[in-house]
Amino acid sequence: MTVLNDVPQVSAALVGARGRVAELHGIRAQAVAGPSEKATAAQHAKGKLTARERIALLLDAGSFQEVEQLRRHRASGFGLEAKKPYTDGVVTGWGTVEGRTVFVYAHDFRIFGGALGEAHATKIHKIMDMAIAAGAPLVSLNDGAGARIQEGVSALAGYGGIFQRNTRASGVIPQISVMLGPCAGGAAYSPALTDFVFMVRDTSQMFITGPDVVKAVTGEEITQNGLGGADVHAGTSGVAHFAYDDEETCLAEVRYLLSLLPQNNREYPPCVPCSDPAGRRGEALVDLVPADGSRPYDMTEVIGEIVDDGEYLEVHEGWARNIICALSRLGGQVVGIVANQPSALAGVLDIEASEKAARFVQMCDAFNIPVITLVDVPGFLPGVDQEHGGIIRHGAKLLYAYCNATVPRISLILRKAYGGAYIVMDSQSTGADLTFAWPANEIAVMGAEGAAGVIFRRQIAAAPDPEAMRQKMVKEYRAELMHPYYAAERGLVDDVIDPAETREVLIRSLAMLRTKHADVPSRKHGNPPQ
């Protein structure tokens, strides 16, 4: 009888367990679906994907593992107690990109406009802590309206926790911010603390105070895109490193960038098999760079001729165009390339170019990426605006970044390298491991015309034919102090090479420097120029 009585009891228990499992699946389905089909349709109508659709594009198929999917806020007042959706407006977890672990959080604009509340922030804090502990990249997919006003100071404190973790993770794991909607106030500051910022045109904006506040305070009328759109930040402010026309392309490029970065600062970037021969000669390089130092050319063509399969990812392409910063591969090994761009402002260094290159060199140094510097620089940009704008301290940022970097550093002087700009562009005297030059190089304090005008001004002024005398002195100065082998004879250039051999020389040099070890002074941290 007991046995018979036990049978229905066991069956009931089984039914109860299955019911609970079914309940769980129902709750999870509700969390995944989001607040409503109407909210999803509204998101799509704006040309935007949902948080989960974005994560699916970013990560390898089927690899996403969500964390705290069932989290809900505990706030009350202002109607919040009646609205407690699962996830609390942010989807967090980890997955893989090309088989390597990546942590991610994505604001769900359909829930509270993606605004950050206490529970929302706690979820982000947790996933950031997990990324730091695991030593894996963190990608944030941002589409939030800032702090949740109904939760007051608790929401603001949540941003403080994010900023603190951004700073703690800086230089430890790659941090990538992808802006996919309007992000104001604190939502804009966290991306500014990360390594790379991606934006999508027309749908994403970043600003501390929106157009309405700007109008109220200053009287200026401007649209959201005009104030903080993708092209503004990619081309004017320099806040955004990349800008794309749609989310699909943007997220594909995030995946590509991740393939060029290490998991953390204790690892090297992934090296891939290379089908492009290391000894491939670049015969086109001889004709790409004009011998006349006043004639412009496109440095990107030089880079494309040197790197593996001509592929590279330019960082900050639209900002400070007079200098190029790019990630690429040589012989399958990831390298960072810094190069003057003669087709923009003659390749001079100015405030923005110095800041752009300094941050890039620091990033490369933090993540064990060798730096190749291609030099063709006439000097720093003269002018009252530059001097009053602080070109001294801004130029010092680039100098500091190079001098502080311990990764392999190779510089190549293609044509001219004049004055302080020559020193700043990773010269041998600032610690470059190897310095090469092409046969057309001119390394000097200044150009021959300017130098002759200073040194021989009295002779030129006293001559019966001042112009003829000036030309004679220019020729004499160039022959004595600016011939292609002057620096090599004094050990300031390791070798003068055939341009066609550049790729082979660089790859061999990188192989030798692969095991470079640099002892640095014991210190808490440096105090770089600001």
TrEMBL record:
One MF annotation (Gene Ontology) recorded for this entry: transferase activity
Top-level taxon of origin: Bacteria
Gene Ontology, cellular component aspect: acetyl-CoA carboxylase complex
Pfam families tied to this protein: Carboxyl_trans
Domain (CoA carboxyltransferase C-terminal) ranges: 281-512
SUPFAM superfamilies per record: ClpP/crotonase
Protein name (database record): Putative carboxyl transferase
Gene field: alpX
Gene3D superfamilies named in the record: 2-enoyl-CoA Hydratase, Chain A, domain 1
Record lineage: Bacteria, Bacillati, Actinomycetota, Actinomycetes, Kitasatosporales
Record keyword Kinase present: no
PANTHER family: PROPIONYL-COA CARBOXYLASE BETA CHAIN (PTHR43842), PROPIONYL-COA CARBOXYLASE BETA CHAIN, MITOCHONDRIAL (PTHR43842:SF2)
Keywords: Transferase
